[in-house]
Give the backbone structure.
Amino acid sequence: MEIRNLENTDFDTLFQGFERAFSDYDIHFEKSEVRAMLNRRGYTPRLSFAAFDEEDEIVAFTLNGVGTFNGISTAYDTGTGTVMEYRGKGLAKEIFNYSMPYLKSAGIEQYLLEVLQNNEKAISVYRKLGFEITREFDCFRQCREVVASPVGDSQLLQIKICPISIGQILELNGFWDFSPSWQNSMDSIIRGSVGLECLGAILDGKIVGYCVFDPLTGDLSQIAVDRDFRRQKIGTRLLREMITHTQSDIIKVLNIPPHCSSLAAFLNKNNIPLSGKQFEMILSFK
């Protein structure tokens, strides 16, 4: 068994290890989806590590994204997995400990990850490594055909829903009620701009709402409405238009803080229920 970084590992080899590690999960990964996910989350091969067996096949891995989070140089766990027959041998912890000196020498100041709240074993391991819970997140999921109630008559019929650019979104202020998680951040959206679509709600030449989504996976990264224009079904109109552009059978909205009750209420009203809960955890290197 050898642990090394993935700088000289081709994507096909990486994807094969990814598929094997999640073969017993109730989810199927397309190669294009994994490639897009890694790109969006800042995957950095030279700071990502895997355990290889005698046939030089990946049997366990941690794929790290690198970037800035809250102004701090950060590594983000964009994917950790172990092939079934190698589980229970402590490989994930071994890879993590192996990677720490390399991350620190690269100027990384903290390590960020998300973990399901019902994964008590993993949370216990992370706590022992020094991670602290920084936020709780709710995740929402629904089949596309049952999402979004009819908009009905509205006094805002003059609002136009149309494509906008990421640059236009960057110029907006006062739309967010919370700071997005790593995978929904503006940095992530900029990295994945080629595969994402942005829609804006335009009133008198002004953007009063927008959404950003991946048409292949159904991931809704951001949806927001100017505070002065809320409760006028703008969000629902954006959501319905998004669905017409989406190829995925599933719509997913990940990592919404529980205190953001207005967004949770909006999603539930549009038939997208709570499907899981996560913790955001951070290990500071300082």
Summary: The longest helix spans residues 91-105. Helices lie at 11-21, 31-40, 91-105, 120-129, 166-170, 186-191, 234-244, 261-269. Residues 1 and 53 are 5 Å apart (CA to CA).
